[in-house]
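Supplementary notes for students who missed Thursday's class. We covered one full example, reproduced here. Read the sequence, then the structure, then the short commentary at the end.
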Amino acid sequence: MKRITVIGSGMVGSVMARELSKRHQVTATDISRKSLDSLGTFPDIGKVQLDVTDHDALSSAVTDADIVVLAVPGYLGFRTMSEIIRLKKDLVDISFMPEDPADLNDLAVQNGVTVVTDCGVAPGMSNFIVGYHNARMEINELEYMVGGLPRERKWPFEYKAPFSPTDVIEEYTRPARFVENGRIVIRPAMSDAELVHFKGVGTLEAFNTDGLRSLIRTMKNIPHMREKTLRYPGHINLIRALLESGFLDREPVKINGTGVSPIDFTSRILFKAWKLEDYEEEFTVMRIILRGMENREAREIIYELYDEYDPVEGISSMARTTGYTATGTAEMILSGIFRDKGVFPPELVGLHKECFDFIVHYLKERNVRYEMSSKRL
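Structure (token representation):
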């Protein structure tokens, strides 16, 4: 039994704490007492109220940990990660920070720690898959699409956010980077919308978002790469209307002498409209397409994920598919399967067959199944 500190006990962090506590001694931390209280039915989990910007408190929270799992909001991720590295603790991260975690690689090497970043569903498991196949074939084209959606489509947005609306809006406003002919191309988010059919789900709308992240840096041998987000058709037109009308602007607007940021106001309103209720059914869908040469043969490899809310444990699909990828990676590090020191995106872990097989098996044991098909082109 190992000692694990989970930093951030929101929807995904709490699920990770619950899962890891089945085998280990877990301490869950969060700045919110309400979030910690939601773990009250799991008495084996220690609970500590923590402000990660307080260095001494953070140090105390991780002192005895064999590994730390980080699930804080993105704007806190880089600073918190650097502090944990300086405290010489191995780390698995799902904070999806806007900064490049690779900038902390030298610091991690100097402190002799293993850090795996962006370890969710996508980025995350998508990267494990790309890294594994990139080491075994010449990939010419990569495209993946992913989305988490409510089962019941409620007007007007037909969407619920399993995490902060602010982070979702970031996906809709940050320019999308993809790769064409080996060169980085930048397009507006929500561009190149297309309708795509998924078995058991129906027709969804796919559009550009900035989800390739580390793959742009680590997979430079792949000349064509693109990532898209999935929503019910029509949702993105509503977001475009908000964007064009100024509701997502960051510059404060004066109202009765008080400056109000439109995006902060909009996020506050959407938090209620997009809140995923307890026990509300939702699902995660993802498709990853790889095309290239394998054993001198042109092939297309497709991975499909369809995962639903778990009514038995009361865990959302997004929490399962994101959280279990991270907990599986933590188990991989604790068991010594992955020992390299430094900061690694999942694709640089997944290129090792033992690591890839471990994470696929770990997820399958928890009924998160990636179905793979392959055909000759």
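Commentary. The chain has a mean pLDDT of 94. The radius of gyration is 20 Å. If anything here is unclear, bring it to office hours.
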